[in-house]
Amino acid sequence: MSLITFLNTATKELEITEYRVLEKVLNIIHQTGDRFNEFKYKDVIKNEMDLFIINELIKNEVLIKSLLCECTTNDISAFIGYEDKNCPTCGKSVLDNNHETIDYYSIKEKSKIESLINELSIIEYVIDFTMGNLTDLIKKKESIVPFIGSGVSIPLDLPSWGSMIKDLKDEMEEMFRPAFLRYIDSGNYLKALTYLQENSLLDKDQIKEKIYGEFDKIPKDILYKEDSNYPDLYNLKPPFYITTNYDNFLTDYISKIESNVTVPYTWKDIINTQNLILENKKRVFHIHGHIQKQDTMIVTDEDYIDLYNQTNLKDKLLGIMGSNYLLFIGFSFNDEFFKKLYIDITSSIKGIHYIILPNISLENAKKISAKAPGLRIIGINVQKDEKGKYIVQDYVRAVRTVINTLINR
Question: Can you give the pTM of this predicted structure?
Answer without folding.
Answer: 0.81
